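Support request, please re-run this one:
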Amino acid sequence: MNQLALHRKLAMEDLQDLQSAKPENLFEQRLETNLPLIEDLFFSLYTSPEHRTYFKKLKKLLPELFKKRPEDLKYQDLRLLKQGNWYQSNKITGMQLYVDLFNKNLKGIEEKIPYFKELGVNFLHLMPITTRPAGENDGGYAVNSYTEVDSKYGNRKSLLELTSKLRKNGIYLMLDFVVNHTSDEYPWAKKALEGDKTYQDYYYMYPDRTIPDAFEANLPEVFPSTSPGNFTYRPEISQWVMTVFNSYQWDLNYTNPKVFLEMLRNLVEMTNSGVDVVRFDALAFLWKKIGTISQNLPEAHQLISLFRMCLQVVAPGVIFLAEAIVSPHDIVKYFGEGRREGNECDVAYNASLMSLLWNSIATKKTLLLQKSLHNVPQKPPSSTWINYLRCHDDIGLGLDDGYIAQLGWDPWLHRKFLIDYYCQGLDWSPAVGYKFMENPATGDSRITGSCASLLGLEKAMRTLDSEMVMISVKKILMLHGIILSFGGIPMIYAGDELGTLNDYSYLDDEHKKQDSRWVNRPSHNWEAVAQLSEPDKPSSQIFIGIRHMISLRSKTGVFTDRNNLVVHDPRNQHLFLYERTGAKLEGVLVVANFDESPQILDAGILSNLGYVNDGSLRDLLSDGKWKLTSSLVQIDPFQILWLVKD
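Re-run finished. Output below.
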């Protein structure tokens, strides 16, 4: 039994009455249970004899951190432990948003709780709200503080008021922990720039190019067009500083145990504001080693697990999300392997599904989608995915070249086609997207654009093409119908529930105009919300359709993630067919047509899967009943069905 499972077992046995429970006693149990694993993890990373001093400091630190945790959150931890793996529930639907773009500030978010509840959203990911540089700051991911709220959003008090109100309304909160780097304005960086050697050792700093060049021999570039290379020279101290992401984001040196101890303090203090889920940002980059690409290293996994096990002692109700946009075979490792299974991250982004869905929209075929999903490693039973179509970031084409080649396609040409399709390189494409971080030498690029604009709604409305508008709406609803029925937490990017188009106002902002990701970070369209009673508007049709699917999802227990998803062969390259399996009559069969023409599904497939009872089926989405009188079933263009036995 892994440590998290043991914690929950203790909670179930000892917490029959939460009012009489003593969190302090359970803390001692957790500390005793976890300490051997924490010690093993610590010394697997910090092997020098002098590092023993820091482990002693860690043992003293854990009780101190628990003592500082607010009493109401200690009981919240116990309630969440009693719920078990709440994040796998079919009743959870998330939304990601920028606070200021959604409704000004934290108080504005609190005012919109009724909106979230009307839609059915009960899990919020608020983009970074802590202080950051005034100019370029990577959308808040260049942090000046891990705990101080930026004044434009409010203050610590307004954050605590919001998190308290969210808990009372049954809404979970996720915040980012920017674990890989700080801004060059962070207090540690400022002291390093003043020449303080102690704080210079918190980062990777070198007086000449010898070691940086050794690193650069293998390090890829994250932002080649705006921030080439992985080191930045700081003349104030005559040092080269590792800056993998941007010149103003300094990578933390976790080979120094002081950094781990200080970041653990920051992590716990952040969770003490009432955070349920910690989004571990850029965690694949945490450990650097010459001769490697310094991504997904074993030491990074050990470090994440060390953070996790320490937090499970102090705040056991809080879970981790892995923000690692890597291959499926690499991402499952962030759930933990071997002795660490279940002791690393609980949730991870299903970036592969996201990119594969966009591939299927462009090609109108699901062959690569099916092949890739059939080869995704099984995740641990205690973990789950976040399934999404869009987020604040770009769309990377993380597709497997081997699978592309097996389909008879040239991988390079196929990626070029996708970039041209979505970034206005093909006149006939309905998509209005833009290139991000284009590499002229390789032709590689990522894609930006809002969900609706990439699916043709912007072009359709610009040309007043009512038929294209209808098709775009169907595409939007079909893709949301997939992420809402797939195994994991569906996460909607704010505005997508209204079909919000690209926002070009960023071009007028000196600090944003070089970053095309801002095109898919629009202000929330409250005017469209006010007009939801007008059913002919595309925004109303999209909102009502997504709200309906969220409601159905919450009533359909088989959508709880129990590793109960099976992808089937539809024997039609335009169809996507998968099943959420359940006992007896509980299963749901999902069928989606990615083509603009009607497609045929062999009814024998439905029969073989046990979904035909006297020839009758029911579609949950339309509540329509089918009496099969033919061996062939027609699936309309961009139609999605949630089929159950009638």
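Residues 257 and 549 are 48 Å apart (CA to CA). The chain has 24 helices and 23 strands.
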